[in-house]
Amino acid sequence: MRPVAEAVFPRPIGSLILSLSSAGFFERSILIGSWVMAVYGELYGVSYVLRTLDLDFAVEVAHPRVRLRADVEGLISGLGFTGFFAAGGWKKFTGEGYEVEFFVHRSGGRNEEPRALPEWGINALPLPFIRMLLDFSQPVALDTGASFRIPRPGAYFLHKLLISPRRQAKEKGKRDLDQCAALMGVLDHDTIRKVLASLRLGPRTRRVLTSSAGVRSTYSTNLRNHRLLRRTRGRLPRCGTVLRRAQEWKRMILVALNG
To answer: Which of 18, 42, 84, 219 reaches 20 to 30 Å from 242, CA-CA?
Structure first.
């Protein structure tokens, strides 16, 4: 796969990714969130208008007794970002209009207290379904020679379907579904099946994946926006193509869920 141009990221974000890469951060941790869509655009031709100032990372938790490997807080501060504490003691970083956030997988319960990560000298907020992004990731090379990791499109797609109805902010939920629709043409059945097989989903979560809060909303949302996007030169598949893909992926997800 060809390298991605560092210029796909604004300078502050590109500098941070290069620094984290040099520190070995991406050996087991990954870039998540909407900036991944910019990388998909470079790799697969995915068309999506990016609208975010958040830079999110999913961190693989090491053994609690592991020693400090790299001072990520110091690294980020050295690039001009300023740390601040959000609700519950979760430490985030801001600089030049961007906000940097770290997340870990929440395996169960509703514990939302930040988790200390002594390997990197930071803390991270536990969220559900992060594991699927970490387990199904892929390396990305930059044209500078550095590398980082992102979720595979299929894992990212399913993650967005699962978290969209959980969003308190409706605009963010809508954005999740917009991203799902943009990814439809590059998904592969094998990754979708493997990701679904790795998840322990209850009846309610299974319904989310195939209900109006999931697959069908992904497409109906974009059908409603189709004319507007066309007027603003957005590049969406034709309506008929969108509907066919809706039916195809809904059938495939149902088959995978039912084993």
So the answer is: 42
